[in-house]
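Q: Given only this backbone (330 positions), what sequence would you predict?
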């Protein structure tokens, strides 16, 4: 009944060649929806919270929600991951809360500015690895820059990952999982034209780097969800995402962790809008948060099947952070 180190979940997935979704949360219904999907499809799962989510949920609430998720689902390998940590201080706080994995995003500075300095990224990532591994906690870093929320200076600042630099970064930092930029971006507007992933970059990185690869901004932004949101009064014209077929190809070529946030937001929003539009007499929050929870669970169960995660929750016994500490010590 404890949380699983993310490294174990990713290593097991890599061995068998499937992907594991990492789903963002900030409240109870989202966590319940994801765990219900994991139970239904028998999937190991990564739940992640950004700094914004931790702040929104006042840290302590999220901590106890994830403990509840582990307690209610002892048969499901569950990692709790900090998404886009910006400093060693933030990482320390997440580890204190019980997170079994952290991301250090070296393109973010503590003062909220963005850095594009390799040396800074390598230095801060190395310090996070040294600290986290002492606790058995997994570390994800990033090389290259995505668009969207990380895009501090407007369009044109997406930098695809340089494969040689990726190798150097992994060797110098000793991190466990590497997020790369191959054309995805955060949010609901990922591509101006056709969705295109730089598959050649992924292949080159995979050939040089022997740790799990992470894809951020990997929501598919299904047209049915966009249509539903817009049908019931929303305004999301022209939103586009990464087609599932492209993600499945990326998994085949070596991507193991796939970050999904936008699709969950869309599912929740579509369900709530529908209730508001079709049942205007309803005013009990359960009448719309309940359907939102169901809609979210359904979309995530679909991803667990599409990524190949389904059916793998019983493949292995969860390690503890203590076990992982020993492994790092070797
Ligand atoms: Zn991200």
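A: Predicted residues:
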């Amino acid at each position: 009944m404890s949380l699983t180190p993310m490294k174990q979940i990713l290593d097991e997935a890599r061995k068998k060649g499937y992907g594991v979704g990492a789903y963002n949360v900030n409240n109870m219904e989202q966590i319940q929806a994801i765990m219900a999907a994991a139970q239904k499809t028998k999937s190991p799962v990564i739940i992640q919270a950004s700094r914004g989510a931790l702040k929104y949920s006042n840290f302590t609430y999220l901590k106890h929600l994830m403990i509840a998720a582990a307690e209610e689902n002892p048969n499901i390998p569950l990692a709790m991951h900090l998404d886009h940590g910006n400093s060693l201080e933030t990482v320390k706080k997440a580890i204190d809360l019980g997170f079994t994995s952290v991301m250090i995003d070296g393109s973010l500075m503590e003062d909220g500015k963005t850095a594009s300095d390799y040396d800074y990224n390598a230095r801060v990532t190395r310090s996070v690895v040294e600290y986290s591994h002492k606790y058995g906690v997994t570390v994800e870093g990033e090389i290259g820059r995505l668009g969207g929320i990380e895009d501090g200076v407007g369009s044109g600042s997406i930098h695809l990952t340089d494969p040689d630099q990726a190798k150097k970064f992994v060797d110098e930092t000793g991190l466990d999982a590497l997020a790369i930029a191959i054309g995805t971006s955060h949010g609901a507007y990922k591509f101006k034209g056709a969705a295109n992933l730089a598959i050649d970059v992924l292949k080159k990185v995979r050939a040089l780097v022997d740790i799990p690869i992470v894809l951020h901004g990997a929501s598919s932004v299904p047209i049915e969800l966009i249509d539903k949101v817009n049908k019931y009064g929303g305004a999301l014209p022209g939103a586009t995402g990464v087609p599932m077929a492209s993600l499945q190809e990326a998994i085949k070529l070596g991507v193991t962790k796939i970050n999904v946030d936008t699709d969950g937001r869309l599912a929740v929003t579509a369900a709530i809008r529908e209730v508001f539009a079709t049942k205007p007499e309803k005013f009990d929050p359960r009448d719309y948060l309940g359907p939102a929870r169901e809609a979210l669970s359904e979309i995530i169960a679909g991803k667990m099947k599409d990524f190949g995660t389904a059916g793998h929750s019983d493949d292995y016994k969860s390690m503890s952070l203590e076990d992982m500490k020993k492994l790092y010590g070797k």
